[in-house]
Predict the structure.
Amino acid sequence: MRQHISRLKQMNKFLSELVKTEENISSIKINGITSDSRNVMPGFIFAALPGSKTNGKKFISDAINKGAVVVIAETGTKISCSDTLLITSDNPRSKYAKIASKFYTEKPSWLGAVTGTNGKTSVACFTSQLWNSMNLKGAAIGTLGINSIEYKSSLDLTTPEPVTLHRELSEISTRGLDYAIIEASSHGLDQSRLDGITFEAAAFTNLSHDHLDYHITYEKYKNAKLRLFSDLINNNGTAVLNRDSNEFKEFSTVAKRNNISVISYGSDIRSDICLVSSIPKSVGQEIEINVSGKRERLLFPLFGDFQAHNAMCALGLVIASGADANKAIQSLGHLTGVKGRLELVAELSNRARIFIDYAHSPEALEKTLLSVKNYTRGKLNLVFGCGGNRDEAKRITMGQIASKYSNKIYVTDDNPRKENPEKIRRAILSGCPDGLDIGDRRKAIFLAVSELEPGDILVIAGKGHETDQLYNDRVKPFDDRYEVKKAIVYERVQ
């Protein structure tokens, strides 16, 4: 009860500061906050946010009738109810996020974030695993939901909307978790979902052709990522940056301009955490790393050198959190793979292997194919497609990459959404004209499995951890892993 009263006082003080008024608002009792008018109850704050399909301003009257005591809206918004406090802003999403952060005050003592086109989920999960291996209680928040030893929960978005995010951070904290790492998507950063959080550290993995259907230009896409380092890190915090990336210099400059120290990682010998070498092994790879002048060689139990790079990034974040570097390095050898990230799902009696991967951008697909090529004794075959209502320009490029590195290509449906699936496949096939056009993903997987020869590798890319397909407004249950198992059983009984 005492904690609740303290929270109300903090919230009232914050609201007073926001509206810059001497008006006494201590009598306002805040019971909740939402951007969905359907969820408004007496004593709620309602955020009337602009959206792609509709504007929340349309629902202000409805929210007030349901008992909203505060409304957040765009500059210029007017309301007729004098009993409701109106807070306007040129960026109401940012205001909403900041208020949500004040409503849910309990947070882990150390918060970090990771952004980049590829690798966010693996980095976040590896970071959490490294903490837990050293008896430091931590959680990863992102595409796969909330993952920790003590607590798990599903999420709708990679970077949750503010109320969900802060409610979950509060839950994590009350369960005794001191550390959390959040996946910061470009959409989440652009829409200010993380505003109100001051991170102790943040990491950048890479930037490649993706999400331009939303951001329109590569520059805007990059700037969304840069916000994490210019606006959201503690001035004495740490940026963990990929020195191999073309954007390293720019991200490093932004960080240092804000008095943020930099830990670099990568294959570049100048990296603070350097992946010196990687030798493929049957159970993963033998890696040699150099951490600030100290060399270590160890067996890394995952496939793909990009996974080793993700682990180096996670190591940087863990070191930035104050954990013992030597213990963290030794824990690298105990990491487990992330669902749908170059996941080995089957090894057949003829030693052919089947991997499932989330790669859905040109750079990610190329890295995946290059990585598994080192393990291929026979042919490298690929099943993949591209999502609908997403960046169209990458389709032919991904087809070209598939053609360059794969022996046999099965072009199939990913998530067509509201686009014509045949149109998507034709665009891909223009980059790999020798590919087979098999729209039905189940048939494509079954055929690909049936054609595996001794020592071959099959990569099924694009959907990774996902367990459904989206066709128009229809959600079709579909799990690549399950279909692989069915295909193997089918082959055995033939």
